[in-house]
Amino acid sequence: MINNLMELVQQFTGNTVNNNPDIPQEKKGTVVQSAAEGIFNGLRNQASGGDLGQILNLFGSRGNNVSNSLSQNIQSSVISSLMSKAGINNQLAQNLAGQIVPNVLGLMSKKAADPNNSQYNVNGILSSITGGKTNGIDIQGLLNKYTGGEDGKFDMNDIMHLISGNNKEQGNSDGGILSSLGGLLGNK
Predict the structure, then answer these.
(1) Prediction pTM value
(2) What's the pLDDT tens digit per position in 17-72?
(3) Closest residue by Cα to residue 140 from 163, 112, 119, 166
(4) What is the C-alpha to C-alpha distance for residues 86 and 97, in angstroms, rounded to an integer?
(5) How many CB atoms lie within 10 A of CB 139?
């Protein structure tokens, strides 16, 4: 996934980085790589911190609505990465992260919504950022079925509806999707 993020960051940052006189020529490649790593680490931190709902909303939004708090949390990771790996100052790192992160998240969401784009499928992205904990769960199917719930977003209420609805509808008493989600949430 990091290679896909590098591609998106390069796609978006062409002018932002290449035409920025505050970034030394020899650091431009490091800035792009550091931004991609920062986004990946920020997504991973969101997921491991138990806030997978915001990431699911990102992919459910089809690039139309990147959560401000998700973007800000990931920007912090990007700022840290830019400062430590590319050696740029805090103000420049903040400016770059503020431009790069919301746009790259939006691009990633749009690409993941395209059924013809297998490089950016939601299942693969979430498996990568959760260290494989979502393997076996059809996240894209869940998003397709439940995006735009009654309140316009996919959240824990929709997951609970899915769990209770699935088990009741299928007469399933073996846990079904609940067992799969238990693995995602760290239960064994």
Answers:
(1) 0.72
(2) 888 999 999 999 999 999 999 999 999 998 888 777 788 777 776 555 667 788 88
(3) 112
(4) 13
(5) 21
